[in-house]
Amino acid sequence: MPLMNLDGTDRLGFLIHDAARLMRKRFEALGSRHGLSSAQWRLLVRVVKSEGVTQARLAELLEVEPISVSRLLDRMEEGGWIERRQDLNDRRVRLIFPTDKSRQAFEAIKGVAGEVFEQALTGLSTAERQTLIRGLMTLVDNLSDGEVPCQQQAMKKGAA
């Protein structure tokens, strides 16, 4: 017979899933006023942060099929959000660059993200917020199988 888990860790997966879902839902509600879907925002953020990224790498980062990224990029290019360029070393490879329009929107979306994060963290002290972030970083480290996610690399660099 399994022991009862009194420390709440038996709910960890549900809590993380629900928190991510609710933050995404709030972000979509606030971010939609800028005229992009959540998938387009995710792609835009990746492109701005990793100028010259390949389509294949974008698919990996976004955890979607390459054909889905290609279609999304088609729409983003038509809207003037991104620019595709041939790799000078391999003509089969397309590199993705943000446009000025994307860079401006990225600044706006940082404000939306800050709004969502502040709403999510309301009621937590500065120390509790730092503990939460450190705990989540440890959780990601423990489960990443040697792969360090881009966000975590950036956070570690900022902490150094």
TrEMBL record:
Short name of one Pfam family: MarR
Domain HTH marR-type intervals: 9-141
Record's keyword annotation contains Transcription: yes
InterPro entries listed in its UniProt record: HTH_MarR-typ, Tscrpt_reg_MarR-type_CS, WH-like_DNA-bd_sf, WH_DNA-bd_sf
Chaperone keyword on record: no
Name under which the protein is recorded: DNA-binding MarR family transcriptional regulator
UniProt GO MF annotations: DNA binding; DNA-binding transcription factor activity
Keywords (A to Z) from UniProt: DNA-binding, Transcription, Transcription regulation
